[in-house]
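Quick one: co-fold with uridine-5'-diphosphate.
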Amino acid sequence: MSVTKKRVLVTGGAGFLGSHLCERLLADGHDVLCVDNYFTGRKDNIAHLLPNPNFEALRHDVCFPLYVEVDEIYNLACPASPIHYQHDPVQTTKTSVSGAINMLGLAKRLRCKIFQASTSEVYGDPSVHPQTEDYRGNVNPIGPRACYDEGKRCAETLFFDYYRQHKLRIRVARIFNTYGPRMHPNDGRVVSNFIVQALKGEPITIYGDGSQTRAFCYVDDLIEGFVRLMAASDEVTGPINLGNPVENTVAQLAARIIDLSGSRSRIEYRPLPVDDPVQRCPDITRARNVLGWEPRVPLEIGLRHAIEFFDRLLSEGAEPAPALSPTV
Ligand code: NAD
Ligand code: UDP
Ligand code: UDP
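Sure, here it is.
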């Protein structure tokens, strides 16, 4: 396939999703500028890309202005796991809001397309199920998740105001729980926690009774959705849900991981964090119709890849620090 080589900026490019996106864009023949302050991202995630002459990494915090020349921007910079985004909540909101303003200002000066990594958290603890893009959400504006949820909601507002006011070409994706290799081993997210616990034979920590649901998308599927959305015609602004519509309870996920990793871990129940959404699953009708996109990797296959990754990480002696606890 012949492609026009573009200069693409990926903010948060050293993170879990960002590093996979950089890899994909390089494979598609583009020139990639990865911008990251390494708050939750790791140089290890992009070390294998550094020898590529089409790849460049820049340490920078998106809360500060950035003057570079590119053709497209993917704005992913923001800690994504509850323990990380609640660690310094003021910085989380600043990253979402000031980061969006700076990247939108950059896109406005360059007149280039800009993609925003928004989130299913804009729906909060949803009362509509599965969640469609026109559902406006049920978010607690003053709770411990608000720094992330409201920051991302405000970023969406900014994207749509730059679209209306400055005729910017925007793409807003609402990403649902995604997993795969290069997740941070101690970011406290459910898939990484359960796999690391299972591999170490430690108790699997289910918060609440495990009946809350999530739908898990494998990273390669998600990145395909990003690229298709960016390539779509300019009327396709989003917001558009990207995620896997197969819903599981957290207890089912624990059982799956114990089984696939051959672990002898037992289950340990812990308190449910404050404002933890009870039920979450995307309606991806819009992504199917507009992008011709849907996830292809079944949970079992994706989990096997993730287990292999964490197994290697642990055997290399990269002993993860114990996961912090979310606010309960
Ligand atoms: P991640 O924490 O691995 O990656 C985020 C990256 O952003 C990290 O490399 C981090 O160092 C960087 N970063 C944070 N603050 C920054 C700042 N101020 N300036 C520059 N860089 C900064 O998380 P991820 O899972 O890869 O998530 C990437 C994006 O996707 C985030 O915006 C997140 O909100 C969104 N998202 C992810 C998921 C998911 O399930 N993984 C779900 C919904 C939304
Ligand atoms: N900005 C940036 N890079 C650019 C252009 C702008 O980082 O190439 C930042 C700059 O800090 C500015 C913000 O983006 O404050 C918003 O830019 P915009 O042009 O929308 O607003 P203004 O400059 O009027 O504040
Ligand atoms: N969870 C859990 N045990 C863990 C980590 C998370 O039971 O060790 C639960 C958490 O309470 C939530 C779900 O798993 O109901 C997904 O949590 P995660 O932090 O991965 O993402 P969220 O969708 O809540 O942002």
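If it helps, The longest strand covers residues 113-119.
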